[in-house]
Here is the input.
Amino acid sequence: MSQKKTVYIGPFIQCKTLTDLDICPNGMIGVDEGGRIAFVLRDERGRKIPEGDGWEDAKIVRIQDHGFFFPGFIDTHIHAPQYPNAGIFGKSTLLDWLNTYTFPLESSFADLATASRIYNRVVARTLSHGTTTACYYATVHVPATNLLADICQTRGQRAFVGRVCMHEMSPEYYRDESVETALRDSKACIEHVRKIDPEFDLVTPIITPRFALSCNTESLAALGKLHRELDLPAQTHISENPRECDLVRDLFPESKSYADVYESAGLLTPKMILAHAIHLTEEETALIRARDAKISHCPASNTALTSGRAKVRKMLNAGLNLGLGTDVSGGYTSSILAEAREAVFVSRHVAMDEGDEAKLSVEEALYLATRGGAKVVGLEDRIGGFEVGKMWDAQMIGLEAVGPETTELDQSAGPVEVFGKETWDDLVAKWVYTGDDRSTTAVWVGGRLVHAKEGFRL
Ligand code: GUN
Ligand code: FE
Here is the structure.
């Protein structure tokens, strides 16, 4: 889709590396008609917009007080149909939670009117939190899964949409009939996305065995074959809950480990996203590293369902690639900003047992939420930061709503250490710890405005 050339003027912040924030107090970013970043200028206050190529006539979008542009968030693991259950989990743990809360709700997506209502809400809501890319699990239902893909396309959210495969250990009222129907229906959903977005510009199908316990050796191998033949991404759960891990050991006795169940099926590849990964052994971590499979860290869910504390620092030190996932509704929040906060706090609980090195900083959590997530979904060349050639998947953050204490921020000097004033680093920390969707003023995906706070005018 062609949009008007646009120049975004004002402070921008992005994650350079895991530990380094790039803070540019006076920036100017040009975005072309295709939604791609054409130029990035720094410290350009007072300078003119570049001449030529029609930039003189470009639309201008300016940051107002105490705001900045930030790359859009990437939710690497979210169950769209579970959105109505966000916050409802009692004292359950994974396996009874699935049977008590999750399967009954997901089964209701046989009804397309229900699917339409909920899926429209979840896509609108995640956009309002600045989630420009989401990796969705849908349900077993083909029409509802196709509808979720349509809604992402219409509302303009970059998305991976997976029809869930589950024929084992699932209730009679909600399951795939057989391995054959699971494969047939998964292929139907892939073909639907091919029809609405042939180049997978915005929406991509993703092969989704729910987890080892929902499948068997035969279906996992068949999905692994499909994954490699079609060169499509895949997603599943791994090592979330101790009882789940015991059952996997019992039911797949021929496999050396949980990770080896996926390895044997040909599913452990650079395009596989593994959610949770809490109770991995060192051998499994090494295997996942060797295969370059990716990890979605879901701290809110891991705490809510008392699944455990993922050892993020250990995984990072082992060279694994991680992003953040809300895992709605194991997780109670659909906000990646809140998830970043949860990641920071869970890491402090790990630190109480294992020492300070385990603590994640605000910068590290933001990296996982953006650039880290981009690697996890295989789009590091297109999203996650503000470089020429990347897509303008971005959010405008305004801090008035959550109240910075100072009006004395030095806009010209960059991060400054001045007592009594807030530095840019302070403001970013305040955003992470106290911000919410009131601070998300506007959101763009591929240069298209996909969300604006009430009252906001461009
Ligand atoms: N394992 C299998 N299914 C699910 C699910 O829906 N949520 C979570 N958190 N774990 C799972
Ligand atoms: Fe999940």
In short: The longest helix spans residues 336-354.
